[in-house]
Amino acid sequence: MEDLFLLIVKESTGTKHNALKQTAQIAYDKLYRQHGIHRDPAHELRSVCFTALQMALDTKRPKFITMGLNGLHRIIKDERFYIGLEPEDDSVWLPSQLLRATSGILPTNSSEDTVINVLRLFLAMACSPACTLNGRLLIETLSRCGECWELGSRATKAASLAAASQCLRTFCAFLIEEAEEVKKTAPPGLMTQAQASAVYNEVIPVMQWLCSRLVEPTVNSSPNKNAGNNCSLFLTECILTLTSALPRNVHANPHFTSFLWQKFCPTLAAALGSPGRINLDKKFTYKDALNMIENEARGFFTGAGLDGPQARCVYLTGIQLLRIAGAYGSLRPMLEALFHRMLLLPAPQNRTEPLKCVREILKSPERLIDLSVILYGDKNTGQGCSDEMALFRLMIDAMEECAYSVNSGSGAEAALQASVECMVALLDSLQILCSGELTESMISDQIVSVVNSRHETLKDADYTGALTYQSMARLPAPYRDAIVEFRQSVFETSSGSDSEGDHPEHDAASNGSGDTEGPEEEEQSTSSDETSRAENRWPYTHLEAPIIPVRADIDNDRQHARDFAKSLRKDLVPKLLRLRSCIEVDEAMQEFASVICQENTMNFSDFDYHLTAINADGIYLAIYSSLLLSLQLTKAGYYDVPQKEILIPMSEQQFVTSVQNTGVLVYLSSPWLCELYQSVLVSNALEEMSKEEFEGTNARSALVDMLCDAGGLGTTQMLSEWQRLQMANTKHTDEQDNKRREAAKKLCRRLLTCCWDSMVIVLSSGLGDLPCSSSNKLMALSKRTLRVKAKTNKTNGEALYAMCLDGLHSAATLSNSLNLQHLAGKILSLLASNVCQTNGPRVSASQAMSMDVVLNGGLNLGSSSSDCWQSVFAVCRHVSQLEHEIFSLQNTTVGTSPNTGRRDMETGEKLNNITQNDKLNLASLPIDDDETCVDVYSFLQAPLQSPNTNITSILKVYSGTNETVLLSQSDTSKVLCALSHQAENLFSNAADRLSLPSLCQFLKNLCKASREQLYKNNVARKGSRIWWPSKGWKKIDTLPMSLLLHRIGDVTLKVFKSSRPLLHILKVWAITGPHLMDASCHRDRAISKRSIEYIHDIITALLVEQSELPHFHFNEALLKPFENLLSMDTCDIDVQDQIVSCLYEIVEAHRTEIRSGWRPLFGTLRNARSRMLNMSNIIDIFRVFLDSDNTLVFANAGLDCILCLLSYLEISGGSGGCANTNTNGGGEEENNFRPTEFLHETLRFLERCSSILGFMYNMPKCPNFHSTYKIKGITYTHIIDANIPNSMENFTYFGNDYLQTKNEQHMISYRSLHIDKDTIVKIDEMDKPSGVLKVWFLLLDGLTNSLIVCPYSHQAPILQTIFKLFKNLLCSPGIDFGFYCINHLLIPMIQDWLRYINKTGAPWSLIEKNFKHCCCMTTDLVVEFIEKSVNDTRQRQGVMKTRFTQIVHPTATTSNTNSNGASNITKHHNSLFSKLKFVTERIDDDNENMNHNNQYDSSSSSEESGANITDSPTKISQSATLAMKQLLLVLIECAAQAHESVARVGVSCLKHVILSTGMLFNESQWMIACSAIHRACTVTIAPLRQLSFAFHEKSNSFYGDCANVKVAARRDSTLDELTRVYSLAQQVFLSDNQREPATKISNHLDKHLTDERSYSFLLYPLNNGFNSNLDNFVIRIPFKNLVVGLLANQMLLQLVAKLLLSRLKCVPQAVSTCIFDNYATTASSHDYDLDFRSKEILLRCVKQYLTSSLEFDSRPGLKFLMQKVSNIEYAANLYKQMTSSWMIYFIALVDSYLSDIVIYNLGPEDLNYVLESCSRLNTTTVKKKENFVRYLFCLQDAWNLVCELYLNNSAMHDLENGKLHGVEGMSGGGGGDKRGEGQYITLNAKLMHIAINSNSDNSSQHSGTATTESASPSKCMQQQLEEENLAMTTLISEFQPKSRNNPFDTNRPQKCESEAVSPEIEQQRASSILKDSNYKKAALAQLVVASMELLRSLPGEAEDNLKLLMTPTIREAFRLVQLQGNELKVNQF
What we know:
With 2029 residues, the protein is an all-alpha fold. It is built from 81 helices and three strands. It has a three-stranded antiparallel beta sheet. Helix 37 packs antiparallel against helix 38 (824-835) and helix 51 (1133-1150) runs parallel beside helix 53 (1175-1187). The longest helix has 43 residues, at 1826-1868. The radius of gyration is 59 Å and the shape is rod-shaped. The relative contact order is 0.04. The C terminus is likely disordered.
């Protein structure tokens, strides 16, 4: 320093510089003296030096200026000038002295260098430690710098700004130091923060000066506009520097804060001037705005606004203000006003700069904390910290508006880019706060404690306020008024008012409405998707949900539920709490459930149908649900404070559905579950659990863990085990650090929840993916496309795209670390939709990063938010697809599949043309493919420990640039390998780690995505997102691994093999099962095949892992998909075969483990019957099942096994049921295996089932049969229909009432045949609770039903099995069940079969043999059962059990008799009817055996007991009677058939039943039997009688008298059939002496049978003048029906004779034998004990025979007609029938008459008295003997009738023809009656329908005892009859013949009786009548002679008594006969 002064002295030459020289010398001297204690004060020393140096500067000579500046520098550096303290007076302080010294140097008068050097001095001074500044000096300094700034050049400006800034900083540092000093020196406790900060009062004047200077030029309207602007930049920079330098605690100074909000902030806002948006409006000028606002609004918006740099300073100042004042609640409005002016007021396109400054806030974690925490609330307004987010929201709103405005196309791209940068910066800062290093400076302890105390948990920190900035409410009043006024005035005419002014609110609305993460239409489709509705109920959806009957007494259920809840609480929970592992707990629960069900089945008594329906699956689920509910209630403190109102986590209904709708079969009624729910609410099921176990403080309780896993109650959605492992891995850190991290996380979460939706909108907009609010999506799409094109031409478009993706990555990561997974759906959706738009062969870095982020965080995000899964799966798919493409490219040519819509990230252009695409692909592939290969595969082989680091390290290389860079080929390969590894991990971790609810969500979404992939792939997607490249199915076909189906299969397998509880497995299968089933029907065979393999693997896995306990049905759900698959139409043959072989494998490997799975397994086999290639497998499956000894399994699945086996019976054989269609082909050979061997196997299996059922029936505690509740009401018991279709028994009399009254004499009431349904025993009454009989019944039901529809070749073996099983019923379940099955299965089956054949018109030839066999076997069976039942009742009734003494009915004689009786049927025509003989012999053999058995069965009954029984009211049980009644009715229907052999077998069996069991009958049974015989006779003769009624007696007309009779011909029969009919016609219509030998017959017939025509008689009513269509009233009588009916009728006559003549008391047996030698009624036959009523019925039968034959024989015309139709040589006649019936009638009445005489002990006088005193009309004069009298007259009448007829006929005969013909007639009729009466064969005809004719009036015909019982039929029958009779009048013929070729019906007018007949016909008729009268006379003579013989054979007294009845007519006839007989010498007898 001294040297410098010496230099100045030396240089100062000349007078000009004398003063300089002197002062320099003084200064030098002064300095020289300064040492020791003789020092001057520093300021004096400085003063001397400054004076000298100032003079040097003032010389303006460069040399001196340089020296002066140099000197000033040295002063600043030299320590001597700073010794000691500065004085009070600041004018002598260094800054002041320096200012004075340099005052002369200004830019105007000095060189630039000089000015800059001077400014440097100020800078140096400010930097020197000794510098002391105060406010005044600072202002002066700033003023000086400002002057330099205004006037100087660029360099000067920079220097002046640097100097000013440094001064400001130094000043602030000085104040800070002073404040610290004050705090330190003050006594502790006295000095507060506020007092210490009083130091900062000094800053206020400085700021005030700066503010006033800033506003000054605007207010003064300084002419120098430029200068003003220039200066404002300097001032704003100074303000910025000052605020930056101030410490945070300055806000403790109240003066300072009030200055801030009163002056400083308003100044800044005003300085910003009018926002740019005003200038948009052309009509509104700037001056208008000035004038309008200047006075009122304190100049907020009056300035022109600052330009860029200045505004930027103001914005940055705002940031510093936030740092200083952010923690003060009261200062927030001021800050908000400032930021509002910065961000919200300008139009979106003008916000770029302010947003860039906001980015500075968001980029710094510290600023972010300032922004989000208010430490000191506003005491005046009472507002707490609820508004700490308002400022943040304001910033976010500004960005959101930018995003929307870009979308509306207003050119705000730069603002959008800034917004995106802000968002990304925000997310980066949040990531640092979440997971980076946290220091005290970043987040102070004070903030940590405040935040942690405000928000206890992370979740509490969520922001719940308004989601837009509530602009007007919070701003300071003056500013608010200014805005209102500004907006009103500015926007009144503005076009932008709508879009801008209301924008934030509008956005809020659109944003609040939810911004769906996927294309919207997809969301809706899922909600309405049929799958989501069905999936819960699967697998029982379209098959069999349990139809548990709704019972009135639900009390049982409720009681059971209460007991269950108690045992759960007392027994199960304590046991579970002791267990330590989840596996043990789960097993214990399953065992408990199984035991509960076991007890339930054991506890109820037999026939208790009020048992509670439960199954173990349901109980198991109920255990879980109730314990889970208990746990939730315990956590909520529900049980601790009962009176406290606590929200119950689930309602009763939710609880019920949580158990019932799991997709598993659950038999728990709703009342049961409701009761359980209430029980849990009342008493805590977990009361045994200690607090430690509940909170998990010591060891965790396995039970609690399991419940948390099942309900997703843990802290995360991962399994408890996994969480514990994670906790073990984490390192323990310092507690304060933990608190700090916790506070940071809470703040992050608060900020994120506040801005999440807006962030999504901004980032979406940056990706060009913002879902627009306009309804027209197409418009928006096209706009977006255009914009992308335009934008991506610039590189910043790419950068923006990459940046948005980065933002999304951060957001995804954050949502994981802050537990905000539920918000991440939109983020992942955006990532996925952007990633999946590209495809190979190279991937961009940002997209690789996106995929990495999604796959890394996907599991955590999805576990908490299921809407993330779709995106995760989309990315997984995309990865595997890319991988496939890239690795397959090495083998294919490159450009094969150009993708037109692809966007390449390097060029950013859409590549629409193919050649360019090819080029690009070529360019992007390295030339050397081999090298890549090696690289890739070596990478694959390396063990990939942590793929994440690999990816990030690869991507680091690419992260430097701002553009979207494509990875190199090899890097792409590596990255994809790592990614696909991650995808694998994601799925396997999901299976291992996810808790149950999130696992279910995961799988539901996976199935949904897979379903879309499989089925909706070709549908073009609407909306703006493409989830994955929509390449057609063909492409995906080649990418098998990208199928999500594989993932589903693998995950399910992994879950099934894991140690998860059964509950998880149940629920998982309910979700994935249906999808795999669905995929199994896919049209692509590869997919369906793979799906079935998966199902098979999964089933196998579970059968290996999990053993199913009794009463569980999970295996059933497991195998259900197979059954459902085969029941679908979409299932093809290959799939069926694959499934059947899968089942075979399962049965082979796990036969014992299948358990409940057998049911669906059989269901599957049942559905798979259409094409069976693997029969042997199926047989093996059944064998395995039936050989297993587990009765529980059989009880569960036996019914299904049986149903399945039954379904196989109906499969038609390979040859279609015809034996002769075998062709010589290999295929046929294979098929031939089936109908034979397979059928026999099936039947054997059914027999085995039956024997198992027998065993189980006798078990003491038989398990309940599954599904019997379904058949519980075999309520409909099948009984037969008594009406015979098409029978003609309801006659039409054509108006002849006399015929009707005559007919009614033979009729009876069929009341005894009526079946009363109400009295039938129901199966429930005889069944056991297990339902075994119902199953047995179904087995037999299926067998009998299958018989009708199965192929013909199967019928015989099935029949054999049916009868084998039915016979066995006698032994095992017993006779009651046997009768039940016979009554409701076997007998109705015969009727159904018969009607089925008639309905379908099937040929009898194939079925006849089996049908006859069936009828005979059934008859036999019924006989056997009836006999057995009688023996049973005897055994039960026998009081004394004595030794067996005698067989009640001698066996040998019985069988002989029967065989005689039966073989006589076939005696005459052995050659023709060998078949029938075989059948009948078969019956007899069986019958013999039966009687032998009988011998032993009845061994315990004695004579006495036998006698008792005879007196007992009924010997035969009700069910046996029903069986007999039904059988008889069916046999009557058979007898009425037009097919000969059926009719014959019907009659034969009818005889067999009655004759074999008749000796056991009591009265009522005889009534039934006789009524049946009567009905059979009536029905069979009905056709003939109906035809007779069309003719008058003695009428020769063959055209009909009462009706028009026509003959119609039809070609509907074969020649053989016709031949047979004609031979039968001869048999029935000719007496034996008229018939020719067989050979002649055939020749005779052949002549006539050249045409194959069958005839029918059509009876038309006479036209009464009505114009009605006569065809409607026609009665059609086929000739065949008539003939076969007569045949059956004649056979039945034998039976009647047998019964009536079996016990003749007075007439010698020999009489009847000699007359009817073929009715073998020998003395040794059974005595049939017929009572009076039964005999009466039989007599009416005989009377009907007699009447009908006489009716027919009295109509010559009809007989001639019949002769012509029958092709016979004589007139048709029924003389044979007449003679037989009269003789039977006569003998029976004679015997009755004579025996009554003996009984009543009457003498001749008595008889004479009776004859005289009584008449036919009045039989009552003899009391109590009316019947005797009536029979007496009947006998006399019958005798008289024949004699009268004989006399008339003889007289006529003799008169007409002389005696010669009579002789011929007599001799011809010689031994007529010695020949057989009946030869029986019947042929088929169409059936018609008619009711039983039971006219109630008929009952009056029965007199005496008969009237009491048969008074009237039931109402139901009357109604039926009325309907039927109605129907009869309009009976329509079944076919109208097309042509009626009636040979006799040649064009005659209908009404003319005397119609001309051709002479030839006339002659034939005359001849026929003449011949016939001969025969008739002979027949009558025969009868008269027979009566004479009878009279002669009687003992004397009896003969006399009979002679009393002879009338003159009889005597005359006797005389005439004897005369003729003597004349002719012909011994007839």
